[in-house]
Amino acid sequence: MTREQYVKQLDLLKESVLSLGEMVELIFRDSMTSVINLDVKLAEKTLALEPEVDKLEEDIEASVFDLLALQQPMASDLRLVVSTLKITADLRRIVGLSVNIAKIPGRMEGGHVKPLIDTKKMADAAAFMLENSLKAFEAQDVELARAAARRDEEVDKLFYAVWVELIEMMAKDTSIISRATNLLFLIRYLERIADHCCNICESVVYLATAERVKLN
Questions:
Q1: Domain residues for 202?
Q2: Per-residue three-class SS string for 129-190
Q3: pLDDT at 18
Q4: What's the DSSP call for residue 210?
Q5: Residue 215, domain member (yes or no)
Q6: Which of 33, 128, 193, 197 could serve as a FRET partner for 146 with CA atoms 20 to 30 Å apart?
């Protein structure tokens, strides 16, 4: 493989991760919309996208292993290859959590036990983190990665507040336990999605600087 082909393969690898990221953003956004509106049809449409993600993930992993086995990349190129593999894994985890979110509308009967105001704030913050972590990866922008990761604190605070509120509501009215439990799962999924976005931001910092940091 010539140097030109090698560089092109690295560029294609990066583009593949960004394409996966776009798909992950779509799945996460639609999963939340399906929960907020209890839209079972949208939830089913969202769940049907998971095999496409699996195929993209497999293609990225194959490209990574080819580069490692055949090209033995060094320094910054090696960091790019390693980072794409780690970022791909975190994106796949976000899809798994989004799929769990999309399963909630099919289990909910009788509507939500409370307005999802703070829960939506959690989702908006997580969506911001996801979008900007991917932008940071594309541009290798360390400051943007750190700024995106800082929103994790907001997600954690909202998670705790909603968790306490739901526990108190269930203690007062046991008839809502089933529906409230689904919301407890929902906020846990959102909190984990934010954590995976932080992982992506950490990978961006490593890619750009070779420094390993903890941002959550």
A1: 3-209
A2: HHHHHHHHHHHCCHHHHHHHHHHHHHHHHHHHHHHHHHHHHHHHCHHHHHHHHHHHHHHHHH
A3: 98
A4: S
A5: no
A6: 33
Note the pLDDT of residue 120: 97
pLDDT at 171: 98
Has residue 38 been placed in a domain?
A: yes
Residue 1 is predicted with a pLDDT of: 57
Q: Report d(CA 205, CA 81) in Å as an integer.
A: 14
Task: Assign 29 to helix, strand or coil.
Answer: helix
What is the CATH number for 9?
A: 1.20.58.220
Q: Is the pTM of this model over 0.85?
A: yes
Q: Is residue 64 part of a domain?
A: yes
CB neighbours of 16 closer than 8 A, spacing ≥ 6? 56, 59, 60, 63, 84
Can you read off the two tokens belonging to residue 189? 């999924």
Q: Which residues of the chain have pLDDT under 50?
A: none
CA distance 185 to 165: 14
Do the domain assignments include residue 13? Answer: yes
Q: How many domains does the chain have?
A: 1
At 89-102, the pLDDT tens digits run: 999 999 999 999 99
pLDDT for the residue numbered 69:
83
